[in-house]
Amino acid sequence: MTMENTISAKAAGFTQRLAVLLPLPLAGAYDYGVPEGLELAPGDFVRVPLGSREAIGVVWGEATGEVAAHKLKAVGGRLDTPPLPEAERRFIDWVAHYTLSPPGVVLRMAMSASRALEPPRPSLAYARTPTPLEELALRLTPERRRVLALLEDGPPRSPLELARESGVTPGVIKGLLAAGALEAVALPPPSPFALPDLGHPGVELSAAQAAAAATLRERVAAGGFSVTLLDGVTGSGKTEVYFEAIAAALRAGRQALVLVPEIALTQQWLARFERRFGVAPAAWHSNLSSAARRMTWRAVAEGRVKALVGARSALFLPFPELGLIVVDEEHDASFKQEDGVIYHARDMAVVRGRLGGHAVVLASATPSLETIENVRQGRYQVQHLPERHGGATLPEISVIDMRAQAPARQSWLSPALRQALAATLEAGEQAMLFLNRRGYAPLTLCRGCGHRLKCPQCSAWLVEHRLLGHLQCHHCGHTASVPRACPECGAHASFVACGPGIERLAEEVAGLLPAARLAIVASDTLGGPEEIAELVRQVEAREIDVLIGTQIIAKGHHFPMLTLVGVVDADLGLDGGELRAAERTYQLLSQVAGRAGREMRPGRVLLQTYRPDHPVMRALLAGERESFLAVEAEMRRQAGFPPFGRLAALILASHDEAAVERAARSFGRTAPRGAGIEVLGPAPAPMALLRGRFRRRLLLKAARGTNLQAVLTSWLARVEVPPSVRVVVDVDPYSFL
């Protein structure tokens, strides 16, 4: 604090002036005065007045000086909570600057369990008083003697524990308490998170795994920032390798964080972690109860959680001693958050590692082009695992040309895939059918006039979910029943389902193989971790013959008897003009193919496609990942697209179509110009109506070295946007809807 601030603060009756950041969408930190007797430091959680109410914020540093001393309000007090670590505060500022978000909104993600800021209530226990028994008017029955003997040399115990171990009723303990032989003491609640056992034996590693694990251990133990890509084929045992890096972090007294893209991927992962370390790790995801979130957040902040696995939001937990971040399936698009603060967790994990000075491991069988380019440029290091673990071999991949092997009418499985399914089940093995469409059918139309049922709030068709008995929009959640009459032509009972979803695929399999035990697996058919765990158990116990699902089953799972994977509509992700369409399709199909033949029984993968000559299909068939990525990279390099250029999107949305159109034209007129900068649009977004809001998009394309944030900030300042129009900035967009 400057001398001037110190003098003005004392003149106003305060010992300090400090800036406090609040978890609100405000321009920045607010100045407050610190009353005498209260000492605060950056990172402390404090109560402060805000208008007519009280708010909780974090001391962010010195006061800005923007508020006159006589107008300062006093900090109400400090919370009994570990301070927000310096690396976390720097990370919040960095994310806010990079994404052009108010820092308070980013802080809110780090304070997502607000009730955890209050210390948990202590546990009540009883201890022996120092008063000699002969001074107490106490009749010593055998029951009372047992209680006193138990507490003579042992620690305080809870009433329930004391009664159980002494074999007495609660009345005996109450009598001793009333007589003064016992006293109540407050104990901190026991930690719900057991410490990982570093001496617990792990699985035997192959030579390649052992070499990669040794390198990761060295980098973690050495300390300092590093990023390593663990590039291994599906089934190569990447998880067991980075477990050794986790062990190295724990030996160094540091914490470890593992990010996974889908909570569905964690069930078998958790079991493997427990086999390696003897205990389950802490978990962080949206399905946690509020009590579990509160308990986990507090334990992380206090350093009592040593290892945690979680979704992308776990990156903002207040780890005081973080020593390693692992991003599993680093290529997965689920790491991109598309609402609120828009960020990519993989990229932010690397930033968190740099700011915290620790190791980061990115694991994938199909690394993103961005990560591959960082390896090529020498920014990241790489460890390869080119073979499957335990003698298993990669599956044989075949392409079924649907132009030559068309299925029967109202059927979606080719004759070759039908035969393969029957043969697999006859051999006592399991199969998986993959189709990245939820529900029964993606489109419902009137056979009389062709009218299509669409969402009234979005530019999307309603998807029939026959198992749930309704139509649903997968963008806003709107539901409706199939109308009895067509609203366009009035025809009755004229609506028909068009195209397949996984429910319709299951209907076909049930007709083809009536004795087969089927499971339909999608994000809307699994309610939470318990249901996912039960599904995994059923597959492992061979209570299910055929899994039929979307991308939730495409990665992470290990089922020893699953030997056949059939992909229906393998071309599905190639259309739509997305920048990463080919790369994502290659990654997704590689991942789903990797579920087959993961142990000693060989696996087969059949890809049904109408475009067998597409580069993605040719690369999968020939196993030529590197040449495919080289072609993709060259195309993007020539076009100046990421990772060889920069992109940022402006998305305007409003319930008033005219207002959003006017605002979009204003942004178009004031668009930045200059060397290496190009603005595309404005244009209606592909999803031009979403949740009742009309949408327009502009895309800023710039050279790699451009200060994108400065360009965007200047551009946004030149346009006065009406309150009815919302402007969202997406730096490094992944979705172009």
Helix content, binned percent: 25-40%
Structural class estimated from helices and strands: alpha/beta
Mean pLDDT: 91
Unreliable stretches, pLDDT < 50, 5 or more residues? Answer: 1-9
The name CATH uses for the topology of the largest domain is Rossmann fold
Shape: globular
Given this structure, which CATH class of the largest domain is correct?
A: Alpha Beta
Taking Cα atoms only, what radius of gyration do you get, to the nearest Å?
30 Å
What is the percentage of strand-forming residues?
15-25%
- Can you say what the CATH homologous superfamily of the largest domain is? P-loop containing nucleotide triphosphate hydrolases
Number of helices: 20
| Side-by-side strand order of the widest sheet | 10-11-9-12-15-8-16
Note the main sheet. Answer: 7 strands, parallel
Task: Explain how this protein is built.
By secondary structure, the protein is α/β, with parallel strands linked by helices. It has 5 domains: 3-111, 3-Layer(aba) Sandwich (GIY-YIG endonuclease), CATH 3.40.1440.60; 123-187; 207-390, P-loop containing nucleotide triphosphate hydrolases (Rossmann fold, 3-Layer(aba) Sandwich); 392-437 and 500-633, Rossmann fold (3-Layer(aba) Sandwich), CATH 3.40.50.300; 645-731, 2-Layer Sandwich (Alpha-Beta Plaits), CATH 3.30.70.600. The protein has 20 helices and 31 strands. The strands form 8 sheets. Strands 10-11-9-12-15-8-16 form a 7-stranded parallel beta sheet, with helices on both faces. A 6-stranded parallel beta sheet has the order 17-27-26-18-25-24, sandwiched between helices. The chain has a 5-stranded antiparallel beta sheet with strand order 2-1-4-3-5. Strand 1 and strand 2 form a beta hairpin. Helix 2 crosses helix 11 (345-356). The protein is globular, with a radius of gyration of 30 Å.
